[in-house]
Structures are given as C-alpha cells and as structure tokens.
Design a protein that fits this description.
Shape: rod-shaped
Largest sheet: none
Structural class: mainly alpha
Order of helices and strands: H
Number of strands: 0
Oligomer: single chain
Distance between the termini: 42 Å
C-alpha cells in the first residue's frame, strides 16, 4: 500500500517528535 508523502504528514510527524521530546524533557526535570 503506497501513499503520497505530503507536507501535512511531514509536519505532523515533526510536531509529534517535538511533543515527544518536550514530554521526555519534562519527565527528566521532575
């Protein structure tokens, strides 16, 4: 199954990674 790798998917992936990194940082601080 193939799908078009558009900018919306790329941006959502970047936002997800940033949120995950921020969450791990918050856990590290506490």
């Amino acid at each position: 199954m193939m799908y078009c790798f558009d900018e919306t998917l790329y941006m959502s992936m970047i936002i997800f990674l940033q949120m995950h990194a921020a969450g791990s940082l918050l856990v590290g601080y506490t």
